[in-house]
Structure formats: structure tokens, C-alpha cells
């Protein structure tokens, strides 16, 4: 039985078709071009030649493969200061939590309080006390002080991206050095607190709080005593090293209290 693609009818079809045309196929992104060699044996050109041509004879072909253009994918450089700080801070043993809004941060704090069975989270800065009131967090909790609290939460002056350290102002740092300070310290911060280096952080501190001295906390730093950074005296922050940083992607509003 003969079909269009086999036997004599197929061979006649090849004669009058595009037998010498280049064929192009694509498989899984690789472009394969199939064409006849320029030096191939001439094909029969008459009906008699086709009849007498052995069926097994096949014209030699050449196959060349054209590889697709490679797309270079590389991991982008992490230049965002929040990412740099989080990586360096967590590498020292700290815990970093990202939130989009202040309200989300308070929900995280509620979850932490419930999971750890904390009775009270102490705060002394007006900005955080305002947030507690607005978000209905711990309303009516009377009689709790820093001494009988399970955790404390405060702001900070700067989050240093280059080494994951935290700069505190004297009011925040002096609380940390109290012997009654709880074992858990939660730091609430926004993007305005990010700085590239300790030098830039200290410079900003001096612009805002001079002549007071900054205190720096780096969790894995076991060195004792104070030090100088660019001829400026910097204090080492004492106190617990169980630190959580809750970072919000919106600006923490200033206090409405006088």
C-alpha cells in the first residue's frame, strides 16, 4: 500500500516540492537548522530517473545546532539598609521582625505576649505609650513597673547597617543598665532610624543630642569599657542581649503628649 509520504508518490512529491529548502525546528528553546549539503549528489530530475532510483538512497544532510542566547541571572546586590542590618543583627543572635505598619507591629507584640505568657510589657517613652493607647494594648494594666514586667519595649536612635549594632540615647541606655531590667528587650524602629555606619550614626546623634553621649549595643561584642569613634567617646550599652527588633515600614508618629 502506498501513501503520499512513501514510495514512488512520495518521491515524486519531493521532486516538485521544496526538497532543497532549509527546514527549521525549535525544540525546548534550542533552534535546530536542517539543510542539504552544497556538495550533495544531484537529485533525479525526470520521471524515469525517479523510477530507476533505489528507494534506499537518501541525500546526505548536514545538521547544525544554534544554541539560544543565554540569559544571565545573578543575585541582586543587597543594598537596602534594612536588609543589611537584619542580616548582620541576626548573625549575632538577635531577632528581626518586619512589619508594614505600626498596627501590624502591635499585633506581633500581642502574639509574642500571648505565646510567652508575659503579664506586662513595660514602656516609658511617650511615642510607644501613645501607640499602646491607640491600639488598645494593655489598657487598664495598673501597678506594673519595670521591675515586675516580663519584657520592655523602647525606641532607639539608630540601626547601624554595616555591623548590626544599635545606638541608644542616654535615657534608653540608662534603663538597660538597671539590675531590675527584664531579660527581654524589644526595640521598635522605622526606616528613619537606619544609618549606613557607626560613624554616620554617631555624627547624627551628636547633631541631635550633643553634648550627651551615645551608647552602642552589639550583641556579640564581649569587649568591656568605652571607646572612641572618630575622636568621639562612645559608651558600650550594658544589659540583656535578648534583643528583638520590630521594624515598621511607616514612620512612627511623634508623641502627642507635651
- Helix coverage percent: 25-40%
CATH class placement of the largest domain? Alpha Beta
Level-2 CATH architecture of the largest domain = 3-Layer(aba) Sandwich
Q: State the distance separating the first and last CA atoms.
A: 102 Å
CATH topology name of the largest domain: Rossmann fold
How many helices? 7
The total strand number stands at 14
* CATH level-four homologous superfamily name of the largest domain: NagB/RpiA/CoA transferase-like
Task: Estimate the strand proportion.
Answer: 15-25%
Mean pLDDT: 77
Task: Specify the overall morphology.
Answer: globular
Largest sheet entry: 6 strands, mixed
Helix-strand topology string: HEEHEHEHEHEEEHEEHEEEE
> Which class best fits the helix and strand makeup?
alpha/beta
The total number of structural domains is: 2
The poorly predicted ranges are 1-38, 44-48, 61-78
Amino acid at each position: 500500500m502506498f501513501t503520499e509520504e512513501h514510495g514512488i508518490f512520495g518521491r515524486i512529491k519531493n521532486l516538485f516540492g521544496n526538497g532543497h529548502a532549509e527546514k527549521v525546528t525549535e525544540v525546548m528553546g534550542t533552534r535546530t537548522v536542517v539543510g542539504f549539503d552544497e556538495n550533495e549528489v544531484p537529485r533525479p530530475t525526470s520521471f524515469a530517473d525517479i523510477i530507476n532510483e533505489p528507494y534506499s538512497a537518501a541525500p546526505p544532510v548536514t545538521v547544525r545546532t544554534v544554541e539560544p542566547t543565554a540569559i544571565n541571572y545573578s543575585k541582586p546586590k543587597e543594598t537596602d539598609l534594612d536588609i543589611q542590618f537584619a542580616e548582620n543583627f541576626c548573625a549575632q543572635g538577635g531577632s528581626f521582625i518586619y512589619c508594614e505598619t505600626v498596627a501590624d507591629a502591635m499585633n506581633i507584640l500581642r502574639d509574642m505576649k500571648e505565646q510567652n505568657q508575659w503579664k506586662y510589657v513595660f514602656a516609658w517613652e511617650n511615642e510607644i505609650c501613645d501607640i499602646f493607647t491607640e491600639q488598645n494594648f494593655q489598657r487598664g494594666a495598673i501597678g506594673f513597673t519595670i521591675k515586675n514586667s516580663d519584657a520592655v519595649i523602647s525606641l532607639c536612635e539608630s540601626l547601624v547597617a554595616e555591623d548590626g549594632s544599635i545606638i541608644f540615647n542616654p535615657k534608653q541606655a540608662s534603663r538597660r543598665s538597671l539590675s531590675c531590667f527584664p531579660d527581654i528587650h524589644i526595640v521598635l524602629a522605622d526606616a528613619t532610624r537606619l544609618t549606613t555606619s557607626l560613624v554616620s550614626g554617631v555624627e547624627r546623634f551628636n547633631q541631635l543630642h550633643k553634648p550627651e553621649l551615645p551608647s552602642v549595643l552589639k550583641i556579640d561584642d564581649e569587649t568591656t569599657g568605652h571607646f572612641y569613634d572618630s575622636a568621639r567617646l562612645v559608651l558600650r550599652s550594658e544589659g540583656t542581649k535578648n534583643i528583638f527588633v520590630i521594624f515598621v515600614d511607616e514612620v512612627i508618629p511623634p508623641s502627642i503628649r507635651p
